[in-house]
Amino acid sequence: MPVSLSYNLNDDFSKPLLQSRMKWVMSIGHELGGQSKAEAMIKGQGVSLILESINVRFRRPVTFPDTLLIGYRLQKPTSEENQDPAVLNTAAAAYSLAQKAIVATSNEALVWYDYDQLRKCLPDEETLSVIFGRLKSSS
Fold this sequence. Notes:
Blueprint: H1 14-42, E1 47-58, E2 68-74, E3 87-96, E4 101-114, E5 119-120, H2 125-137
Antiparallel strand pairs: 1-4, 2-3, 3-4, 4-5
């Protein structure tokens, strides 16, 4: 799914990464129930994902004008990890077309969250099936 991102001198890489993550969450919603489900997921209605933590590694400076391509994928948990089933680990990379190089990478922990109950939860089987399908295709 193409992602158009805006970037200006006052932004750090968090904004393009946030925009990319929201597009990714919306694509899950579209797969699960179309536009209405996608909008509910980004508006915090029902069960969706919330950012628990992010670690961004800035590798190179970026100056305006530039176009950044953001790659975003799920990460498989390692067998040694005592992984919380409500947590998804993701990785992203920002590639600069002007520099022809990766300029930033990130690792994130996203948590399944029930916005109606205001607590962490596990999604239903259909949602897990979509996520596991994406995990298989990203490896």
